[in-house]
Amino acid sequence: MKKFCVILLLSFTIIAVKAQVKINNTLKHELDSMYVLDQKNRELVSIKLDSNKVDSLTKLYHINKGNLRNYLMKLQTDADSSNTKRVEEIIRQYGYPGKSVVGEPTNEAVFYIIQHSTKIDKYLPLVEQAANKKELPFRLYAMMKDRSLMHNKKEQIWDSQAWGMNVINKQTGKNELTFFIWPIMNAKNVNKRRKEAGFDQTVEENAKRLGLTYKVYTMEQVDKGLID
Questions:
Q1: For residue 23, how many other CB atoms are within 10 A of its CB?
Q2: What would the pLDDT profile of 113-154 be if each residue is shown by its tens digit?
Q3: Residue 44 CB neighbour total at 10 angstroms
Q4: 226 vs 17, which has greater pLDDT?
Q5: 76-96 mean pLDDT
Q6: Could you read off the pLDDT of 15-59 as tens digits, one per residue?
């Protein structure tokens, strides 16, 4: 009898665990499709396209080469707007759809859509809560927190964000768009914080990945345009 009770208890435990990890496949497929839209044209406008790709896209969209980048940006803006609207509906229904609801890596889809929207500050606490519950990687919350700080003109914490601004080129005397790593709080310990948050690159390696040379700036230097 005792053995039977143990087996019965184990059976109920297995059933309970399976119930807890049941994936909402309908939502998962929808979010996977939304993530594709989030990335599709964003990737195209962020890289230098080869001539064959340019020719292919201009034929596909029936536009001139000179208008291609602006057209792709408009497509992405429209997709972002549509995605954000739907994500807000999903959040109202499910909360943050983390890995226990849609599995991995689909649990990252809502993060990226919010990250590319104007709703970061509204949903940052929700993303933090999901990260603390391990429903999505903590480093993603760190990226969103850094972006929020940057947009609010404050120092970032984990060095995940770069910024571009027009500054005077000392050699040419002309205004030029210059990209740099946004100022970092307590920069000397940033690599330790990055490792603890789950980033697999140092601040120097991250800058190189972005095509930049790592240099520490202060908020005062940014405010005065003292970027070189």
A1: 13
A2: 999 999 999 999 999 999 999 999 999 999 999 999 999 999
A3: 18
A4: 226
A5: 97
A6: 444 445 689 999 999 999 999 999 988 877 765 677 788 888 898
Contacts of 111 (CB under 8 A, 6+ apart): 127, 136, 140, 144
Q: At 148, which amino acid appears?
A: S
Q: Write the CA distances from 108 to 44, 135, 160, integer angstroms.
A: 21, 9, 17
Structure tokens at 124: 């940052």
φ, ψ (nearest 5 deg) of residue 181: -75, 125
d(CA 207, CA 124): 24
Residue found under tokens 């291609």: 68
In a 13 Å sphere around the CA of 180, the CA atoms on its Cβ side amount to 20
Give Cα separations from 112 to 17, 166, 198 (angstroms): 29, 27, 17
What number of residues does the chain have? 228
Instruction: Give 47's Cβ-side CA count (13 Å radius).
Output: 11
pLDDT at 105 over 60: yes
For residue 125, whether the previous peptide bond is cis, meaning omega lies within 30 degrees of 0, is: no
Taking every pair of Cα atoms in the chain, the longest distance, rounded to a whole number of angstroms, is 89
